[in-house]
Design brief:
heterodimer; A: about 1050 residues; alpha/beta; seven-stranded mixed β-sheet; about 15% strand; globular; B: alpha+beta; DNA polymerase, domain 1; Dna Ligase, domain 1; six-stranded antiparallel β-barrel; four-stranded antiparallel β-sheet
Amino acid sequence: MSGFAEMVAATNFSFLRGASHPADLVAQAIALEQAGIGIADRNSVAGVVRAYDALKQAREKRRAELFEEVEFKLAVGARLVFADDTPDIVAYPADRTGWGRLCRLLTLGKARAQKGDCTLYLDDLLAHKEGLLLILVPPEEEEAAAPVLERLAAVSPGAVWLAATMRYRGDDRRRLARLKRLAETQGVPLLATNDVLYHAPEQRPLQDILTCIREKCTIDEAGRRLEANAERHLKAPAEMARLFRDVPEAVAESRRLLDRIAFSLEQLTYEYPHEPVPPGWAPQDWLEELVRRRLPWRYPEGTPKKVLKLLKEEFTLIRDRNYARYFLTVHDLVRFAEKKAILNQGRGSAANSAVCYILGITAVDPMRFDLLFSRFVSEERNEPPDIDVDFEHERREEVIQHIYERYGRHRAGIAATVIHYRARSAVRDVGKALGLSEDVTARLADTIWGSWGSAVDDRKAQEAGMDADNPTIRRLIDLSSKLLTFPRHLSQHVGGFVLTEGRLDETVPIGNAAMDDRTFIEWDKDDIDALGLMKVDVLALGMLTCIRKAFDLMRLHRLGDYALATIPAEESVVYDMLCKGDSIGVFQVESRAQINMLPRLAPRKFYDLVIQVAIVRPGPIEGDMVHPYLRRRAKREKVDYPAPAPEHGPPDELIGVLGKTEGVPLFQEQAMKLAIVAAKFTPAEANQLRRAMATFRHLGNIEEFRVKMVEGMVMRGYERDFAERCFRQIEGFGSYGFPESHAASFAQLVYISAWIKCRHPAVFACALLNAQPMGFYAPAQIVRDARAHGVDVRAIDVNASAWDNAIERDGGCDPALRLGLRQIDGFRRKWADSMDAARRAGAFATIEALARRAALPQRALRLLADADAFRSIGLDRRQALWEVRRTPDAELPLFAAARARELGEETDTALPTMPLSEHVATDYQMTRLSLKAHPVTFLRPFLDAEGVSSCAAIGKARNGAAVCAAGIVLIRQRPGKGNAVFVTLEDETGITNIVLWARLFELFRRPVMSARLMLVEGQVQRSPEGVVHVMATRIHDRTRLLDHLVDGEEISPPRRLAGHPRNVRILPASRDFH
Amino acid sequence: MRLAAVDAAAQALGLAPGLALADARARLPDLVVVDHDPEADLRLLERIADICDRYTPMVALDPPDGLVLDISGCAHLFGGEAGLIADWEALAAHLGLRVRPAPAATPEAAQALARFQTVPAPDEQAALRRLPVAALRLSGETVLALRRAGLKTIGDLAARASAPLSARFGEKTTATLARLLGMRDSRIVPRRPLPALIVERRFAEPIARVEQVLTCLDDMSAEAGRALEAREAGGRRFAARLFRSDGAWRDLRVETGLPTRDPTVLARLFRERIEALADPLDPGFGFDLIRFAVPVIEPLAPSQLRLEGGALAEGELAALLDRLGTRLGRGRFRRFRPRDTHVPEQAALALPAVIAAAPVAWPRPKAGEPPLRPLHLFDPPQSIEVMAEVPDGPPHRFRWRRAMHEVTRYEGPERLAAEWWRRDDGTPGLTRDYYRVEDVRGRRFWIFRHGLYGSEAEHPGWYMHGLFA
């Protein structure tokens, strides 16, 4: 073991300063045979777990390859940067107490500052000094450090060092002598260090660029803000000894300091919070007791034997692994939501257990579905089980605030998400720093690395018309590729909570999030995994809001009283509906791709839905597993199982893995299991593979895994093609890994939402509209679909509509859907509520009465008139508008009454009648939908002249027929690899799906991207299941025709094309003037 | 980011202002985009307004893209409205501008017709009535409400009683309508106040010789002088604008310390001004209009000069620079400015003194510390032969200008890496290790090793870069 350890090293978690990954620093320090390394980032410990993990892996690798131990010690700490004039101080915890102090110190600084910042003063450090070893990094004028050094030495005797660096500034030796004197005067040892910013000198250009980005200047302007040389890298012990030959004791001191550090991240043991367990109970007993108590609720007719047997197994497993507290913690949350009537559902591997079902965490009945619980704990990874709980998206915040309240902010925090550079931002920032004009960078960033790509490479630069041999472009590409892997800042995870029994802020620093009332810790979910902390995901799901609203409506209108688990199961009418691809609004299976898949997969039972949810995903698609599965399911192909050569194993080794899915791997678990069974990965390796995939973009090298898996399978006699497809599938899972357990929970919601849609279409549409924004479709499509299912949809009216859309049942008829005032763009809830209150005293007979009684301002009245909501008073849109505009704002009744007469005396102005087409256009402008007619109806004569067939006609056309389709563009998508562009057109008769190959897309890019009203020439393609597409050959933009809707008015100005399809406006908003 | 304006080609491809840039790029990946610069647009508009000064001094800006000219009483000079418009169109075409001129009885009508007229009409009133209500240039909300009420043209509005209209759409709507239709008086506010005194000369045959221009200016100053005399005033500033027949113009400005109206003084000043012009007065095809204006007039009452004269302490250097600059040329004398860089030979920049006039603080060495940079730098550094330790040890002796120097004392190295971003070959460049050394005779030198031993160069070269005092 050598005589030197670098104790002051910054990683790239010292944002825009450090220019190396923690893992690279650790690897380099090991390679240089240093005794250890101290990782200290600016007021942060965000990067230390990665260093810790890297060291762990390096040890494993060395052990496996060379049967040696790595003698190396990792010290983790932080470089404290102060808001007063105090020079930087690097702090390392000597023991667990010290770590707690450091975390609390950083938490304190973060609480004071805005998101991402940390405001510390020297007094804070002095108050938290216990257990901390401190290295003072002297400033430029080293004498300035003397008073601080004196103070530190006095309060922390024996735990203070003075850092000395050889900076190659000409006066190094004189400075060293001065520092030595200073250290001797204060009785503090001198510590040799290189104040490291990167692991190797090659990183200097990147570090310079980071400096420029930080200082917001170009590299030409940066001047002496840049480092003068490339010396701030890790150096070999011998080199350090040579540099510090004047003070050899300073080099040796690094070892002494390292030896003083007895803290390692391993010491962070996790303890579940105790709240969920009542005093006097052991967690396991309490869990079993809870389950026992709730059994009659789930199984009123007595618990089936199978369930009892399952429970017994699960209890044993939970007891062995000591997971009771985890289940209790999740249960506690779910119980709170239940009490508040917030709908929720658990998912994740552990969620599909009998215990979870009985505790009400999930609604997936283990009696009906054969989901193996033991799968939840992969034996090899001794990680806590995983349950994500989805809550209604409108009410999740209540749950989050409840967690803070129950456990306290010092014990509960949201996990961090490390936000990495994206291709676009990396190119832009590097380009700016290199002094390239905004135009060049934007060109590269926007058009080349736009929405559909992520890697930065030469070919793309050439496509953009950039010369990749030009040195500046070359640098831009090189440096942006490197920067791409760098963290940019920390943000809060969508809902991963870490809860502890002890103080969480003594385990990890907690900081403020950008959102009010949120705090998050410095570590992300991989870090939490690596340290074995427990996380509960508290997520938001729009469909749960919709389902809860549907349940409420059904209760209110006596259509039945249901809960997630009590929806009648396996009703064949529901599957009939889904098989037809009739699934607009249904959870998960409403996208175009899913709708097309439904008739082909033809789900008839719950497990089919589980597959349906999982199959239209990047994993199975990239792995080319979809078609084999469909063929086998349709019995058009024999189900066989890939097998190894006889000498390598039994031919049926994969039956256990692929049995449920006709021999085709579809779920993430199956792919991982394949790696273990067929390619003989160790479980630990499979787990590494999974994690490498999840963070694929950041960590890079997966080639190693590919070779290992593919060659491993080929060597054992599997076909190469199958092996490669399996690996591609795993790649495809990437960050969208979709395990069976998730699919099962989702499938449950698919079934429930489909059931509501099938049985109560009016209620479903109503709930869906009231839960907006959510789902895939705009209100117009939801309403249209409801009408297609025979729902009577009624227009917005001042005498009938409340804020929410509502169900009207007059005299036991079928429920009708009354559109609510929330559908009017710009209308406010408080206006609607005061209308509602005023209406209880009787209907409004005139506009003035409405204005007066509901105290509506002029603006509200105008919106109502424009939305044509005065029909019940006998005024159409134009008349109402004419009336409204002279109605004064709400005022004192006395004056209003006096004025009313005055207003009455006006001669008839005889406005021209508004044509229907203009009504429709205005309806779309105000509410994005019209019940009066479809806009294309009015354009039919023009379209007929062009030989356009209606969508209905195209739906009936024979396969291969040449057709001309036209309609309003609902959706335009370029999924996955972007080989094809999908466009959905709508006319008054229905919708048509257009497929356009990427090659043609480049040809017709302009009309495809700009048309609101599109005309497509192409051929009908009809699949055996009756799914119809038009394969486009030519595309035309007919948007101008829309101007015919409103006489003399141009209603086809540009619009924002990107964004979610449900936000797409068919006609521009009324105030969209530019 | 949204498009602020598009050219004809982009318009033809369906782009329009207001479209999000990302969407525009999605449609046309090779779209050429430049940043919107409203100030530059305004400057252009002002320049065009300047050009239009030739027709009338009453020019008002109608940003972002319009000008309103009050040509009452001016048009006959160009052969009537049609002649003026033809003249302007020819001039604008020459300047590369596409314009839509429209003459009308009121400024509002002209603005509306220029922007919204698409179909020809027999007379101005009929044309106005055919315009869409948007021509009123009211808020988008009002225009939309008018259209939703079925009132789509100016004619629809004009046919109605104004009381119900103003009750619903505001007084402003009816007032604007009245002004547009010429039923209410309306004037433009010219963009600059008219000068106190203007004298103009128009030439049927453009004058092309500077001598003629001067004669003309003499003549005009005399005329202005007489007018000033009548007002018992004198001018402090005098401006002559020479309009060239192709739309360009030149301004000549003269300022005096005291009010004056003496034509001989003015004539001399203008003559000097013309002679002092950096680029000579280019008449091109000749000037067809000269306007002589006196923007600032003061009573011409003699006042006593102060005996002691003004103190010039602060301005003295500037005055000296001005004098030297006038005599020797601006670029002839320079002044050093510090530049923020690690590269020693680039750390000082010699700039023309007129640019670098203000004194700047130079970094000072720390008190008690020796200077790290020499007084004299060699450009380029001179190659020397050196005996030194590897890898980065100090030199023991070196040969410079054929003389051997024994190093007795040294300090260093100071390591300066090359500026990798300036290099065309893509390599990071060689690092320099600088030493301050002293030889046996006490002379101090600044020498460097070029390239790090081993990693950058096998046998790094050595150079003499400077001498200390």
